[in-house]
Amino acid sequence: QVQLVESGGGLMQTGGSLRLSCAASGLTFSRYGMGWFRQAPGKEREFVAAISWGGGGDTTYADSVKGRFAISRDNAKNTVYLQMISLKPEDTAVYYCAASVRFGTVVTDPKYWGQGTQVTVSS
């Protein structure tokens, strides 16, 4: 049974930083592309960032977070991270971890999802 468990969310002020973690189990982690999505109140869930399987040489980001967010992975720990800096109130959302074998599918239609972690940025 695949499980993705997010952690690291919280309440931050504008301009602050947070690092989200997603611990994966029940899958061969290094063979999966991983991603982060978010859903703000009253809005649809949207793509944030993705990283390719293996060494994670390929990454892609939503335009709204480029230059502020960085996705990385540690295959030895079966964990993917999302480092967020220069946080803005519009980054407030529930952040979800996602996994899929194919990198392209991670961006468009992931196979597995975590339960989410709340990030709130106050102005």
What are the main properties of this structure?
123 residues; mainly beta; 4-stranded antiparallel β-sheet; 1 helix; 11 strands; globular
Notes on the protein architecture:
It is a single chain. With 123 residues, the protein is mainly beta. It has one helix spanning 103-108; strands at 3-7, 10-13, 18-25, 33-39, 46-51, 59-61, 69-74, 79-84, 93-100, 112-113, 117-122. The strands form two sheets. Strands 2, 4, 5, 6, 9, 10 and 11 form a seven-stranded mixed beta sheet that branches. Strands 1-3-8-7 form a four-stranded antiparallel beta sheet, with no helix packed on it. The longest helix is centred in the last third of the chain and has 6 residues, at 103-108. The protein is globular, with a radius of gyration of 13 Å. The model has no long low-confidence stretch (mean pLDDT 96).
